[in-house]
């Protein structure tokens, strides 16, 4: 990018074109034209304007080539082509093209700034370029000038990288609208079309007699340069460069980049086959081979396949499932499943036998305290009887509680009686977790505690909550209670009041 206006530029900053485009600054200049940043005065939209240099605007073949670039670009709907918004002619007769404004840098600038790229990144950029070329090839358009400087790296709205293919100016188009003869002057054999370092052997011989496989050759050369930082074929003169491309075998990628994957090296060598018939027949096969090394851009390979197959091409090509990603996903899924199963098994494991619990469950009652005091004690991060604790409010797995053992060989299906103190081996009156139940345990929070054994059958009489059990044998009645029952029965049967008083006195004395 430069802020200096070339002396032979057809416009300068501040100029208003077509009554709506105000020129802001110069973005760059090439051998044929200049590109400036401009603003649509009514919409406030930033655009890029491309012009032919004045000395070339008088050549009909160059003007036709300029027009072809705009026509080819609008026929490709991919997001990976720089969109052409409008075309026009200045009062001087020089044509111009209005394009979307792009912020970023081309891949040539990227490699110069950073050096060689990582295989996954480089393969991802080439896959995005393949998307654009798939649509172009289906439309009968061969770019013929694929090179790092024509692959522009910008960003999507979400920040992800986006490669745009630029400059279809020397593309060979089989225009289906009957405009083929008009393009004949642009495909003269003597014309040097493209950048020699990226041209295929057949393009060096004749730019007219090329097809989509010349773009595949160029993609292989570009990928080699992205991974090594230097061109595939090196020479000091144009004659030596042409001789190397036409007759010398391409250098293996790993001779310059030993850590490169063998699969990428094989893909590049196939792109650089001298005979077009030995290369990939379409960008679909090339994209399928590259997808393994750029899983984050696998969607690009899928789109390339769909574009070509919807037009009857590459119908025998299929993208294999992502084996590595699938295996990693399966391993992670299996690990999560095993962890979950282990947690569920531990949470729902049946209680240990009563005798074993009686032997292993330690007494947690604090010495010198009453059962009522122990009911509110918080143990290892678990709070009971309304005593708060920081961990008590934290979310966690469902609570697990243990039912009492069967009563006299009969399974107990009802809830644990609440309000009766537990009795039995290994238990303390009132219990250290409350008078009538073993508290639920929250797995994962605090230390795992061993539950005391569940209580045996309880007496049916009304016993105060948290009080020690009554003395004497459980299940018998006091003699005074029996006497009271007898007197009530006699009263109901109608016995006289005199005898009733005597009996009541006897009962009271007994």
Automatic annotation (TrEMBL):
<keyword id="KW-0808">Transferase</keyword>
<dbReference type="InterPro" id="IPR017441">
    <property type="entry name" value="Protein_kinase_ATP_BS"/>
</dbReference>
<feature type="region of interest" description="Disordered">
    <location>
        <begin position="339"/>
        <end position="474"/>
    </location>
</feature>
<feature type="binding site">
    <location>
        <position position="50"/>
    </location>
    <ligand>
        <name>ATP</name>
    </ligand>
</feature>
<dbReference type="InterPro" id="IPR008271">
    <property type="entry name" value="Ser/Thr_kinase_AS"/>
</dbReference>
<feature type="compositionally biased region" description="Low complexity">
    <location>
        <begin position="339"/>
        <end position="365"/>
    </location>
</feature>
<dbReference type="GO" id="GO:0004674">
    <property type="term" value="F:protein serine/threonine kinase activity"/>
</dbReference>
<feature type="transmembrane region" description="Helical">
    <location>
        <begin position="482"/>
        <end position="508"/>
    </location>
</feature>
<dbReference type="InterPro" id="IPR000719">
    <property type="entry name" value="Prot_kinase_dom"/>
</dbReference>
<protein>
    <submittedName>
        <fullName>Serine/threonine-protein kinase pkn3</fullName>
    </submittedName>
</protein>
<keyword id="KW-0547">Nucleotide-binding</keyword>
<feature type="compositionally biased region" description="Pro residues">
    <location>
        <begin position="395"/>
        <end position="408"/>
    </location>
</feature>
<dbReference type="InterPro" id="IPR011009">
    <property type="entry name" value="Kinase-like_dom_sf"/>
</dbReference>
<keyword id="KW-1133">Transmembrane helix</keyword>
<feature type="domain" description="Protein kinase">
    <location>
        <begin position="21"/>
        <end position="299"/>
    </location>
</feature>
<keyword id="KW-0067">ATP-binding</keyword>
<keyword id="KW-0418">Kinase</keyword>
<dbReference type="GO" id="GO:0005524">
    <property type="term" value="F:ATP binding"/>
</dbReference>
<keyword id="KW-0472">Membrane</keyword>
<keyword id="KW-0812">Transmembrane</keyword>
<dbReference type="Pfam" id="PF00069">
    <property type="entry name" value="Pkinase"/>
</dbReference>
<feature type="compositionally biased region" description="Polar residues">
    <location>
        <begin position="366"/>
        <end position="386"/>
    </location>
</feature>
């Amino acid at each position: 990018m430069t802020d200096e206006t070339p002396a032979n530029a057809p416009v300068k900053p501040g100029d208003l074109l077509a009554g709506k485009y105000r020129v802001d600054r110069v973005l760059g200049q090439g051998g044929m034209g200049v590109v400036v940043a401009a603003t649509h005065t009514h919409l406030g939209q930033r655009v890029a304007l491309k012009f032919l240099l004045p000395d070339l605007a008088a050549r009909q073949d160059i003007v036709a080539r300029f027009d072809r670039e705009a026509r080819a670009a609008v026929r490709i709907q991919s997001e990976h082509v720089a969109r052409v918004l409008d075309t026009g002619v200045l009062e001087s007769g020089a044509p111009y093209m209005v394009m979307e404004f792009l912020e970023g840098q081309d891949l040539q600038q990227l490699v110069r700034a950073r050096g060689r790229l990582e295989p996954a990144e480089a393969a991802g950029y080439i896959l995005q370029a393949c998307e654009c070329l798939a649509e172009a090839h289906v439309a009968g358009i061969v770019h013929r000038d694929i090179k790092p400087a024509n692959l522009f790296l910008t960003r999507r709205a979400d920040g992800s990288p986006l490669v745009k293919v630029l400059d279809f100016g020397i593309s060979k188009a089989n225009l289906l609208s009957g405009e083929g003869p008009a393009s004949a002057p642009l495909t003269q054999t003597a014309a040097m079309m493209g950048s020699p370092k990226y041209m295929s052997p057949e393009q060096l011989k004749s730019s007219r007699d090329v097809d989509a496989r010349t773009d595949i050759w160029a993609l292989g050369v570009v990928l080699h340069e992205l991974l090594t930082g230097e061109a595939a074929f090196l020479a000091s003169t144009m004659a030596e460069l042409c001789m190397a491309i036409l007759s010398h075998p391409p250098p293996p990628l790993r001779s310059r980049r030993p850590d490169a994957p063998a699969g990428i090296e094989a893909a590049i060598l196939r792109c650089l086959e001298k005979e077009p018939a030995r290369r990939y027949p379409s960008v679909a096969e090339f994209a399928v081979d590259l997808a393994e090394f750029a899983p984050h851009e696998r969607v690009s390979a899928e789109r390339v396949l769909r574009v070509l197959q919807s037009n009857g091409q590459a119908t025998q090509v299929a993208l294999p499932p992502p084996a590595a990603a699938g295996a990693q996903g399966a391993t992670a899924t299996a690990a999560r499943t095993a962890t979950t199963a282990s947690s569920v098994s531990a949470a729902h494991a049946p209680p240990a036998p009563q005798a074993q619990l009686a032997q292993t469950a330690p007494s947690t009652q604090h010495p010198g305290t009453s059962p009522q005091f122990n009911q509110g004690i918080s143990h290892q991060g678990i709070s009971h009887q309304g005593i708060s604790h920081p961990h008590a409010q934290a979310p966690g797995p469902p609570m697990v509680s243990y039912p009492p053992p069967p009563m006299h060989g009969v399974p107990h299906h009802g809830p644990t009686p609440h309000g009766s103190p537990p009795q039995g081996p290994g238990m303390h009156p009132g219990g250290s977790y409350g008078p009538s139940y073993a508290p639920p345990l929250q797995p994962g929070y605090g230390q795992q505690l061993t539950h005391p054994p569940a209580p045996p059958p309880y007496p049916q009489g009304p016993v105060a909550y948290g009080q020690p059990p009554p003395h004497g044998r459980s299940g018998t009645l006091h003699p005074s209670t029996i006497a009271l029952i007898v007197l009530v029965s006699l009263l109901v049967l109608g016995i006289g009041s005199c005898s009733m008083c005597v009996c009541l006195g006897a009962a009271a004395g007994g």
